[in-house]
Amino acid sequence: MTATAARTVYSHVTKTPGVCGGKACIENTRIRVMDLVWLHKEGRNPEAILAEYEDLTLEQVYAALAYYYGHEEEIEADFVREQEAASDFDRRKAELLGRRRRE
Fold first, then answer.
1. In angstroms, rounded to a whole number, what is the distance separating the alpha carbons of residues 62 and 7?
2. Residue-wise pLDDT tens digits, 27-71
3. Residue 49 burial class via C-beta count within 10 angstroms: exposed 0-12, middle 13-18, buried 19 and up
4. Residue/partner pairs of 95-102 with CB below 8 Å, 24 or more apart
5. 18, 39, 49, 74: which sits with the fewest CB atoms below 10 Å from its CB?
C-alpha cells in the first residue's frame, strides 16, 4: 500500500495562466487573493472587505483568506514581486523624466 499526500482543495480560488499573471484569484473573476489579503492586513474584517468588492460573497472572501493562510509563502512572494515591479517602474519613470528635463 502506498501513501499519498492529502489533497487540499480551496473552493472559489483558481490559478489560471494568462489571468492576472497566473496569480490566485477568486473563481470566475479577476480579483486576486492578494488584493483581499491586503485589505485584511490593513485591518478590514471579511464584512468590510465585502463592502469593497460587492460582487463577491462572504464565502468567497473567507475562501481567499483560507487560501492565503494555506499558501502564505506564495502570496507573500507575490507581494514582494509586486513591490519590486512598482519600485522598478518608479525608478525608470524618474530616469525618463530626468532625461526629458535635460533635453
1. 19
2. 999 999 999 999 999 999 999 999 999 999 999 999 999 999 999
3. buried
4. none
5. 18
